[in-house]
Give the backbone structure.
Amino acid sequence: MAIAKAERLMNLALCLLGTRRPLSKRELRGSIEAYLEAGSDEAFNRMFERDKDDLRELGLVIETVENLDGDIGYLARRDSNRLPPITLDAEEAAALGLAAKVWQQARLAGAASGALQKLRAAGMPEAEDAYEVHSALEPRIPVHEAAFEPLMLACRDRRPVIFDYRKANAARPEQRQVEPWTLECWRGHWYLAGWDRDRRAERVFRLSRITGRVRSRAGVFTAEVPDVVTVRETVESWAGETATRTALIRLRSGSGYPLRSRAISVRELGDGWDELEIPYGHGLDAWLVEFGPDVVVREPADLRADVVERLRAVAKD
């Protein structure tokens, strides 16, 4: 369905760009196969108006012209839709090359390489690549989860999805119906931020906890999509990075290195245990549960209660 619409939009754009005079709706309908297949004039009019609005939203300047007889025609003048020349200096070219290397482990690698080749063919300067000389270090974003690509496409196309998700404190996954907003990589893990239809609230999902196949669903979003900054703050907060206070925990010696790396202070207690003071933000209880018997929360009391509740839920299942 998405491919058919993209093809229809492309054909309409080519018709409007290729004409020297305004084309009427009747002429456009006779030139585009998808419009010919519309069941009625009303269905064609709705489809055409949506397509015209979509092209304008994408940046195509479409003029509406009325002739002496009162007939309405449409065209997209080439001089109004011509992009300015792309000029990049050496530093900008280096930044693009570096960004392309980030996706070498994902299926976006082909698209990134192809884009660079087109820019270089158009005259983009060849920048010295420090990562080619010092190949011991190379920027990469790991993408191992099978859910990444279908969710990335769903975010791009604004398509609702359904998937099975296992929470940190649950033994079995449960189905979630989500309107996906964006994907964020945080500390080596990918997260999806979106609107959970069943809970009627904003939620964030860690991709490594999605089980099975991500399935797309027809229909439009029912909730407003927030701006990028808001979504990033949500991911950061859910991951426990927005600390509002500190927590005191006991950690078994020789374990919990991710917790130790964030600790404000560490004190040896003896008998194989250490005491850590760590930043406390939303999502910390779910993270602590993952360390099992190696962690004991001492304070605050509400964090301790949340961790105990999650452990009891796992034991019950």
About this structure: The CA atoms of residues 40 and 193 lie 40 Å apart. The first helix runs from residue 2 to 18.
